[in-house]
Amino acid sequence: MEAVLFLLIGAGFVAALVVGVWLQRKRHARFREWAAVIGWTYEEVDRSLIDLSRAQPFGVGSNRAATEVLRGTFDSRAAMSFTYAWTTGSGKSRSTHHAHIVALALPTYLPTVEVTPEGLGAKLAKLVGARDLQFESEAFNQAYRVAASDERVGHAILHPRLMERLLQGDALGNAWRIDGTWILSWSVGATDLDRLGSRLQLLAAVVRAIPRHVWLDHGYDPAPTPTL
Asked: Model pTM?
């Protein structure tokens, strides 16, 4: 009887493994087709992306991986999307986490500005010393936590017009960060193609809203004067 039970358990495990592999292959095929339609490229794995940033959700845990990598252009900028995975804990407390990363390339390096929805995570960050920048819009202060490596730049980028944009329904609840030569956003879970377009649009709106003087201060002119 025990032998039969072990055989059944083993057969169930093998069946689950086969189904899992089939579903993953089907998902990869869907991503390739999606990329081909819009002129992007697709790679199943790219280990170089695990070091894209040192800030959340990067830089913690072990067994870090970047999979389901989509690359192309959006709003005339290099763009990419991928699933970032990492593990925490050990033994029975071991957990695997996933985040969908969406990013647009910037034309020059900018100081870090991180905007995250207010909530438990933001409040915990404040307790360990993270400074939450405050703005004239109380609605914005209640909706978001803002941290910046250069507070002057943070206030310049998050001007009233951009704050108003970030209070619109498609922007609320999204976390994003200007991080060196990228602006990226992250959300819990694996890549969601249905949300990719709207998240790219939000990042592009933020980039377009950055004042010219901020770009100029960091060596880039978004509208150079034509030479005769």
From this structure: 0.86
Q: What contacts 97, CB < 8 A, 6 or more positions away? A: 57, 61, 85, 86, 87, 88
Cis before 111 (ω within 30): no
Dump the DSSP string for 58-82: SS-SEEEEEEEEEEEEETTEEEEEE
d(CA 175, CA 195): 14
Strands of the chain, DSSP E = 41-45, 62-74, 77-88, 95-117, 144-148, 175-188
Domain count, the chain: 2
Rounded distance, CA 59 to CA 86, Å? 9
Q: Amino acid letter at 159? A: H
Residue 13 falls within a domain, yes or no? Answer: yes
DSSP state of 171: T
Neighbours of 69 (CB within 10 A): 22
Are residues 27 and 59 located together in one domain of the fold? no
Which residue segment(s) compose the domain that 111 sits in? 41-87+96-217
Number of H helices, E strands in the chain: 7, 6
Residue partners of 131: CB distance under 8 A and separation at least 6? 147, 151
> Mind listing the pLDDT tens digit of every residue in the chain (228 residues)?
556 555 545 555 444 444 445 567 899 999 999 999 999 999 999 999 999 999 999 999 999 999 999 999 999 999 999 999 999 998 888 999 999 999 999 999 999 999 999 875 555 455 445 578 999 999 999 999 999 999 999 999 999 999 999 999 999 999 999 999 999 999 999 999 999 999 999 999 999 999 999 999 999 999 875 555
